[in-house]
Amino acid sequence: QVQLVESGGGMVQVGGSLRLSCAASGRSIGDVIMRWFRQAPQEEREFVAVSYTDERTYYSESVSGRFIIFRDNDKNMVYLQMNNLKPEDTAVYYCNTDQTWGQGTQVTVSS
Questions:
Q1: 55 vs 12, 34, 63, 103, 107, CA distance in Å?
Q2: What phi and psi values does residue 20 have, to the nearest 5 degrees?
Q3: What does the DSSP 8-state code read for residue 32?
C-alpha cells in the first residue's frame, strides 16, 4: 500500500510562489493517478489538480493558469508548483491517490 508525505508548505505573500512536494513510498506511482486537494478552515476539502498516467493534467477553475502539477516517476514524487498566490489559496494541501491521503501541508498567503 502506498504512503504519501507532503512537504513544502509555508507562509508567502500575495503574488508569491511555493512548490509543494509529495513523496510516495510503498509502490510506484508510475501507473496511478495522483491528485492534490486542499481544505481551508471551515470549508470542505476541494479538488485542486490531477496528474494522469498519460501525462494529462487537469485543474480546478480557481487555480487554472497559476498552478502546475507534475510528477517524477523515477523519484516517486509529485509536485504542485503554485504561482501568483492569493489569500484564498490559504489552506492545508493534501496529496492523494485512490483512497490514500497524506497528512497535509499548510499554505498561508498573507496580504
A1: 29, 11, 18, 25, 26
A2: -90, 145
A3: S
**Distance, CA of 108 to CA of 111 (rounded, Å):** 10
β-strands 105-110, 10-13 pairing: parallel
pLDDT digits (tens, 9 = 90+) for 66-81: 999 999 999 999 999 9
Rounded (5°) CA angle 98-75-45: 35
- Residue whose C-alpha cell is 479538488: 47
For the chain, what percent of residues have pLDDT higher than 70? Answer: 100
pLDDT of residue 1: 86
| CA separation for the pair 41, 73 (Å, rounded) | 32
Please give the pLDDT value at position 52.
97
Distance separating alpha carbons of residues 56 and 62, to the nearest angstrom:
18
